[in-house]
Design goal:
This protein is α+β, with helices and mostly antiparallel strands. It has helices at residues 49-68, 72-85, 92-107, 110-126; strands at residues 2-12, 16-26, 37-40, 127-130.
Length: 131
């Protein structure tokens, strides 16, 4: 196992910044964070994908704030949403991380939630949707 450290800065008004540091351990299986993730979708939903990704990025940011505020029920709700909708867009990783977030929120496991959010952030930065 190898790890990398991620720091997230969340800005809250007025002029308050909270820094969350955590380390993610990943298996050494040809994983390169710069590789694009290619997802094929049906032509009927191609126009919906940019908004879907934008909304999920917004949800991830909201979950980071909820994590600081210990709003596990809100995190669980959004995790469930990710779990259900990811498959519709052929994004299995979103579904898997949504399930992980939902279960971690029930267990109130902040570290597991933060790790799953980091995976999702990385995923949405690298995903490329094609027909």
């Amino acid at each position: 196992m190898s790890g990398f450290k991620i720091s997230t800065i969340i800005y809250l008004p007025p002029r308050v910044a909270i820094i969350i540091d955590f380390t993610i351990n990943i298996a050494q299986k040809n994983y390169n964070m710069e590789d694009k993730i290619i997802i094929r979708v049906a032509p009927e939903i191609m126009d919906l994908v940019p908004d879907y990704i934008s909304h999920r990025k917004r949800d991830i940011a909201a979950m980071r704030v909820f994590l600081i505020e210990d709003k596990f029920e809100d995190i669980k709700t959004l995790g469930h949403k990710f779990k259900g909708v990811g498959k519709l867009y052929s994004m299995e990783q979103v579904t898997l991380m949504g399930d992980k977030i939902e279960k971690a929120a029930i267990a109130m496991d902040k570290m597991l939630i933060a790790e799953a959010l980091a995976v999702l952030e990385d995923y949405f930065e690298r995903v490329e949707v094609v027909l």
